Amino acid sequence: MLSHIDAQGQARMVDVTEKAVTQRSATAEAWVRMLPTTLQLIQQGGHPKGDVLAVARIAGIQAAKRTPDLIPLCHPLMLTSVKVELTPSGADRVHIQATCKLAGQTGVEMEALTAASVAALTLYDMCKAVDKGMLIEQVRLLEKSGGKSGHYRAEEVSDA
C-alpha cells in the first residue's frame, strides 16, 4: 500500500504523529561520467569557475535542507547532519555520496537522494561549457537505518 494515498485515493502527507522518535540515517549515491579532460581540469584546479567539487558539495547540503520545497508531500525535517562527498573515480567519473541524519519520526531517504542528485546537477551545470555530454547515472539509495522498516542496504552494482 502506498502511504501517501488516503482512503479516498487522494495524495496526502503521511501523519507521523504516533511514530516514535528514533535515530535515522540514509546514504545515497550518484555518478557523473565525463570526458577524461574534464575530470583532469577539475582535479588540477584549472576550471574557470573555480573549485567545482566544493560548490557541488555545498549545493548538495543546501538541497537536503530544502527537500520539502522540492519534493511534494515530504515532511520538513530538522536534519542534524548532512555530509556530501565527491570523489574522482577512474579517468572519467566522479562518485557522489550523501548521508543525512536526524532524530525524528520519519526517515531521511529523500533528503539523501536529493542531496546526491543536486550535487550531480551542480557539477554538470558548472562543467557544461566544456563537456555537454556528461552523464548523471545510478542515483540510488545505498543504505538507511532507523524507524519501523529497520535497516536497508542496497546490493553492489558491478557496472559503476
TrEMBL record:
Active site: D125
Catalytic activity: (8S)-3',8-cyclo-7,8-dihydroguanosine 5'-triphosphate = cyclic pyranopterin phosphate + diphosphate
SUPFAM superfamilies registered for this protein in UniProt: Molybdenum cofactor biosynthesis protein C, MoaC
Residues noted as binding substrate in the record, renumbered to the chain: L73, C74, H75, M110, E111
A Gene Ontology BP annotation from the UniProt entry: Mo-molybdopterin cofactor biosynthetic process
Top-rank EC class of the record's enzyme: lyase
GO molecular function list: cyclic pyranopterin monophosphate synthase activity
Transmembrane annotation, as ranges: none
Molybdopterin cofactor biosynthesis C (MoaC) domain boundaries: 13-147
Signal peptide extent: none
Protein role: Catalyzes the conversion of (8S)-3',8-cyclo-7,8-dihydroguanosine 5'-triphosphate to cyclic pyranopterin monophosphate (cPMP).
Protein name: Cyclic pyranopterin monophosphate synthase
Underlying gene: moaC
